[in-house]
Amino acid sequence: MIRFIAVRILRAAITILAVVTFAFVVLRMSGDPAQVMLGPDTPQESVDAFRRAWGLDQPLWIQYLAYIKSIFTGDFGVSMRDKASALDLVLQRVPATLQLTVPALFLKLMIGIPAGVYAALHRQSFTDRGVILLAVFGFTIPSFVMGLLLVLIFAVILGILPSGGQDTWMHGILPTLTMSIGGIGILARFSRSAMIEVMGQPYIRTASAKGLKWRDVVWSHALPNAAVPIVTIVGFMVGSLIAGAVVVESIFSWPGIGRLLVVSVSNRDLAVVQCILLIIAAAMVVSNLVVDLLYGWLDPRLRSAASH
Amino acid sequence: MGAASSNLVELRDLKVAFDGVQVLHGINLDVRRGEALGLVGESGCGKSVTWLAALGLLPGKASVTGSVRLQGHEISGGTRESFERVRGGRIAMIFQDPSSSLNPVLRIGRQITEALAIHRGLKGEAGKAEALRLLDMVGIPDPRRRFDLYPHEFSGGQCQRLMIAMALAGEPDLLVADEPTTALDATIQAQILDLLIQLRAETGMATVFISHDLGAVSQVCERVCVMYAGRIVEEGTTAQLFSEPRHPYTRGLFDAIPRIDGPRQRLIPIPGTVPNPKHLPEGCAFSPRCSRAVEACRSERPPLLSLSDGRQLACTRPVPAEERAGTKSKVAEEMLQ
Amino acid sequence: MTALIEASDLVRIYQIRRGLFGRPHPVRAVDEISLAVNPGETLGIVGESGSGKSTLGRMLLGIDTAQGGEVRFEGKPMPPLRTPEWRALRAKMQLIYQDPLAALDRRLTIAAQVGEPLEIHKIIPKQHQAARVAELMAAVGLRPDQAGHYPHELSGGQRQRAVIARALAARPKLLVCDEPVSALDVSIQAQVVNMLRDLQAENGIAMVFISHDLKVVRNIADRVAVMYLGRIVEEASSDVIFQSPQHPYTKALVSSVPVPGKRLEGRVILQGEPPNPASRPPGCAFHPRCPLARDICRAVVPELRQIGDGRTAACHVVTGETAAIAA
After folding, report:
1. Given B113, B202, C193, C223, which residue has the most CB atoms within 10 angstroms?
2. What is the interface pTM, i.e. ipTM, of the complex?
């Protein structure tokens, strides 16, 4: 057990390190941060001074090692733009993002899973076909198209919902909706196929043959088995609670982490970008680990001897 | 067939079709109280479908017509609820491949007490006590410790015992065992057959034993039905059928089975293969493979008729008496001992 | 006559990990097995789950590497897996197993698959291959029009025939069959068993026939070895071993076969479960279920010893060794 978790944690750490390294290198090689930050007309000495001040004139590997060392002491760097601690800046924005992603996750679970399960239980019916159609529609349309479409309908044509900013709770409706539609589609599809697979298993026939009421067959026998694959997908969705709103936040000018990420990348605000990526990677990795452990709890076959 | 009132289950003209393809062509079958009936045939003959249809366990797109009477009451064509009342409590069914027929994420104790709660209203401690008694009855060692285990922690043979325990929970009048020993090892097969015989003696419940293994059927059953291509082709007591099979298909089946005793001989197979239900031959479905077929067999389907010795036979050119008696006299001798 | 294939003291150990968090521990699937098959002869291997018979079959072909002991084919040691010499040996030894659908590639036609060994081993020139394929298909009873069919268009019995045709393409000297007819209906089993016997007689092929179905093994094998938990417990000719089994396990096995017409009384019904190779009992592995078990059985593993003409058995009671440990 200890070995299992230790190995997973080690792998998690390596993944996070890889992400951070990647970001580190790419950011510095894709254009001079100093130039971008200061603008094209700045005299060369100012640019050079800037670079010295931020340590950008050092060789890449020295900068990298210095950064890694500072992470271990909890110092995630300073924003070049705001001169504030990168970590503080980022954490300030987390609540805003969560205000979108958490309700969106809630909608995905509450609508997506029941829709998929219902479709599976009523195969080839009108509802089944409708669910599949809507689901495909939901996850194939890119979120920015969906977002703009919703803005067009509700903000421009109907004028009942605002199109940007974070002023009232009503401002959160369209972005949350935009975010959840794709996930609802994915969950509906996965829940449907997981349920169909389970319903075709011999033990469901046994449960029926025992004289169990149909609803008990579905609730007590089918759903617990269908839960295993569904949990994987949900696990990933939980992992992207922090990261998943980049496009949506940009469209709706929602002041969350995603928006901060976009702005910081275009400004080459290195410390902030690296900090965000590190947090996102950590969130993903942790959710994967939790899903792995959850499997063992949901499926007893994985828990004990399977040696025959 | 006996007086209607002594029959536990009566199937009349039971027909099943999947997507327009007829797989059962009108089955007439009686099961008397407490009797052990064998249903044999090869794959696709419809022996499992018959009972799945009778219990309403076929998927919705199957079309089932005909009459299924349980102690005089018609149960076919009923609602889902009416089937649920019959399943488990009046007619129980166990299946092939017991390891996949148990829910892998539920503890076995729970899977048994579930049945007890529905059919006998036993819950909590009373339910658990009865479940332990059932586990003991089917030969699971140390039931108390095993009550909370999961199915994958049991072997194939033990899973089949668990299935039987679950089936007995409802105190059914009839147990339908669909190829219960096929997926099991030889020595375990013997144990399960032994168990079924013993349980039947203890509880007096009727048994329908579906199998392609004629030997196993002869151990458990008093009466045997042979099915081919969705119809019954011969029916009689075990002694009658095994000592002198009359239908060429039945005879062919016996000839094709290798013997463990006696000399090594070339096997006598039945030529050809089982027909596709979509393209059944004209006339008798077995005629293309039958060494005794004549022109009439290929144009007219022989009906299932009762014979003077109490059997039923659907054949106009059955195997003659001398031929039957010759090779099977050894079997008849053993049976008459 | 020198044996075509000979196994000496074969051992195969698997590492099994129990569950997500368990430590791996070794399981002896095959425990010092020695046997020999002569050209043209059929050796039947019977056993239940956990006996190791399938593993043994694969080891005889060199698919599973022996961790102890060796296999000699035509007097030469088995080359290591996937070396060119091993691949070349495939032309001389073939495997047929239970699920013909899994053994056939569903994207290739029957003719293409039957002819594949001819191409791989470059046995005959391309222009003659089609004729040989037709010949093979006819030999196994497939119709010429089925050459262009795909596996899913054939019945179970027909697929198994196609597998056999393919196995015979390279004119092998040895055929290892692992439950080849278990998934087939009785009437088709009989067809395939007869066919295997005929092909064997015509081509002088040796066969190792692994099955749990004693009736079929009785019919097709010349000699039979009974396996229990990785060891051979009895070996004798097919006539003798089923007529008068000596080892208590063999007796129980033979007795468990339901014979149409024979009643239950007088049969030996074995208690307990087929053993788990991961938890091997000490001494004779069969002793927990054996009606004849004595003290020596619980402590000492019995060796396979001669008990008659061409018969061996591994049982302290049968070979009269029960007194040894008391002394």
Report:
1. B113
2. 0.86
